[in-house]
Fold this protein.
Amino acid sequence: MSSRSGSKQRNAPLAHNTVHAIVLIGFMGSGKTCVGLALSRALGWMFHDLDLHVEAQQRRTIADIFRDSGEPEFRRAEHEALSTLLKELSPDSPAVIALGGGAFVQPGVRKLLAQVEIPVIWLDAPADELWVRCAQQGADRPLAREQNQFRQLYEERRKHYTEAGIHIETTGKTIDQIAQEVVQRLRMNHVLKEK
Ligand code: S3P
């Protein structure tokens, strides 16, 4: 499968090798959590799933937040959880952070990440493949209940995802292959030191 390498570095400068965090973005089903875990193992870094931070801070599931308080409250909680997490990061404990699929679409979240200059990696796949992956995972995703809406949301969000510094196509690749590709791209961009 093709990888659209060579995309412009628009979110973070990626020009040094002292980063102590990287962020994975992408639509639902793009593999942010699985790849994030594999990456964190490969790098020996911590792993944070932002959705789990939101659920822990809110003491309820994402489906419950959407149902009882609506999407705006979920977005507020998501922003707060990321802001808290970014403040806790330290060079002594570098981290891979997986955002939920809608987080990077929020201007406030993009601003938070730009301020701390954390490299952003976009994991991508075609909408219909992402739909199948979500269905196979069986998780209760409030915004993945109807296929046409899912497709439409994907199209609306792509322009924001393209702001990521690194774009990786995931179709036809294993989790470990994608994680290795992320590492290679970070090395090419001098974000990680060569071994
Ligand atoms: C969402 C994606 C979910 C979760 C919430 C909203 C979205 O995360 O944050 O259900 O807006 O795309 P995943 O991308 O990990 O499924």
Observations:
- The longest strand covers residues 21-25.
- The chain is about 50% helix and 10% strand.
- Residues 28, 32, 51, 62, 100-102, 141-143 surround shikimate-3-phosphate (CB under 6 Å).
